[in-house]
Specification:
Blueprint lengths: L9 H21 L3 H12 L3 H29 L1 H20 L4 H30 L4 H30 L1 H22 L16 H7 L14 H5 L2 H22 L1 H7 L4 H29 L1 H20 L3 H13 L3 H14 L4 H16 L2 H12 L3 H20 L7 H6 L3
Length: about 425
């Protein structure tokens, strides 16, 4: 039975806007916002900025532990409360970062920020998207992932202005309380599954649901998945390796993009301005990529992402400025591709039923891989004093990811897909 186009629905849009705000906070509090927060905190504590940046790296690794805990809690209380609770934790942590009186206090606060936003984004919101939009994950995640680009484009300049006029302590209180308020609203309004709102997945009609979806109750059932079983399942590792490497490439590029731009001859102002331009391109790219996932499917979209990353890396290391600018446009376009695929690929392989358990194993393993981007950049820059070699490594990793994606059997455990294609 062919599905009618009914959009996301009011409650679905509420979920997506909440998810967008979580990703928005991630960009402002933990990723790009570090450009403003780190020097301000370093000055406040009278320590070298490199110490603060090192604490951020440590917090990112510890955040994996937070994600593991969140994955377990997710199965017990549901993704709605996990997503909301993690945003509240991150907001409170952000307040503490700007008001830290010591480096250890800053580290603990950043663990709350990094762990809360990472778990909130991919454990909480990621599971919610899989529950609400199992066959529209690509489109849904394209909306949510735009939050990261908006964070770069809007939140970072906002932090700069507020910090300049009010100072980091008061700025962190204002922004942190805003995140807490959104988290509280999410806790009140969000629901784990569309069924709790009297709706069906993908906002379809009852007839479409019965014809095209699994009726396996309940939707949060683990369907026999255990941690040991998932760790012994080939598709688990294919999902982890393919998306983990793509996220490593994406984060590795973005965390050192200003330095790389200056390496190829840009002035600091231009190199920094490119970040905002890329964010704008990323917003447009996110919408287009969501449609690509729908039209081509997750596997082909993943392969296309790998090919474009390889092309961008090779164009960038050519050293010819026209080609460098083309590479930056491609990098901007792909800004939301890896975060989208990080949720869409395992969601497409394992499906909605039991996804909470699947994600509790897949996401922490994926996080460990992409958190290595700091080590990759740091080691290569120390050995070669240039990021050109890092870009060649990123191209190689994207190529590996491409072959891994080709090895994935899409919809292998997706009970909704099986129900829709039953003989």
């Amino acid at each position: 039975m062919e599905q009618t186009k009914r959009g996301f629905g009011v409650w679905g849009w509420l979920l997506l806007i909440f998810g967008l705000l979580v990703f928005f906070s991630n960009g402002g509090f933990f990723a790009d916002g570090t450009n403003v927060i780190a020097p301000a905190v370093a000055a406040r504590l009278d320590v070298d900025q490199s110490i603060i940046l090192t604490m951020n790296s440590v917090a990112g690794v510890i955040g994996v532990i937070v994600a593991i805990i969140a994955g377990q809690v997710n199965q017990r209380i549901g993704p709605a409360k996990v997503a909301a609770g993690c945003l509240i934790l991150a907001g409170l942590g952000h307040i503490a970062t700007g008001n830290a009186v010591s480096v250890p206090m800053y580290l603990i606060a950043m663990c709350c920020v990094g762990g809360g936003l990472s778990a909130g984004s991919f454990v909480g919101v990621g599971t919610l998207v899989a529950m609400w939009f199992p066959k529209k994950q690509g489109q849904a995640m394209s909306v949510v992932a735009m939050g990261s680009n908006f964070g770069t484009m809007l939140f970072v300049p906002l932090l700069t202005v507020l910090n300049g006029s009010l100072g980091i302590a008061l700025t962190s209180i204002i922004c942190g309380l805003a995140a807490v308020a959104v988290g509280v609203l999410g806790a009140i309004l969000l629901r784990n599954t569309p069924k709790e709102r009297g709706l069906y997945p993908d906002n379809v009609t009852e007839a479409e649901f019965k014809a095209n979806y699994s009726a396996a109750p309940p939707e949060m059932d683990t369907s026999g998945w255990t941690t040991a079983k998932l760790l012994c399942t080939k598709e688990t590792w294919l999902c982890v390796l393919s998306t983990g490497l793509l996220m490593l490439v994406q984060m590795g590029i973005m965390t050192q993009l200003v330095d790389r731009n200056m390496e190829v001859g840009m002035e600091l102002a231009v190199a920094t301005g490119v970040m905002s331009a890329i964010a704008v391109i990323g917003i447009i790219g996110s919408v287009i990529f969501g449609r690509i996932v729908v039209s081509l499917g997750v596997k082909k979209a993943g392969v296309l992402t790998c090919v474009l990353y390889i092309a961008a890396m090779l164009l960038n290391v050519s050293g010819m400025m026209p080609l460098v600018w083309v590479s930056l446009v491609i990098i901007g376009f792909l800004g939301a591709a890896a975060p989208n695929l990080m949720n869409s690929i395992p969601g497409s392989v394992f499906g909605r039923v039991g996804y909470a358990k699947v994600n509790s194993v897949v996401f922490p393993l994926t996080s460990i891989i992409y958190m290595l981007n700091f080590a990759v950049n740091g080691l290569i820059k120390k050995l070669f004093n240039s990021l050109s070699v890092a870009y060649l490594v990123f191209a190689a990793l994207a190529l590996i990811s491409l072959f891994v994606i080709l090895a994935i059997q899409d919809h292998k455990y997706d009970q909704d897909y099986m129900a829709a294609h039953k003989q």
